[in-house]
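Protein Record: Sequence and Backbone Structure Tokens
======================================================
Tokens: labelled as protein backbone structure tokens, with as many entries as the chain has residues.
Question of interest: how does this chain fold, as expressed in backbone structure tokens?

___
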Amino acid sequence: MLQLQIYWSSSSTHKDKANFEDVTRFDPSRFEGAGPTPFTYVPFGGGPRMCLGKEFSRMEILVFLHNIITNFKWDLLIPDEKIEYDPMATPIKGLPIRLYPHHYD
């Protein structure tokens, strides 16, 4: 009898060129309107067992980003930092930034 094990990685689905054009480019506009085709971007799973914290985490990141963007300027400390994929996209050095309050000159 043949046994087969399948490993599915959401990051592989997220990087599938059949689902997204230019998969390595940061492009928030791909989520505008109806957004991507169902189950092509699944950071919280899908279907009846989708993560209960999905909407809370979305609101939390929106509030965080709003506060960072409206209150600070920033510089990347390593502008050409490499990204590794194992299986998630991760900046090798952690993407360090320097924050400056908007009133700082």
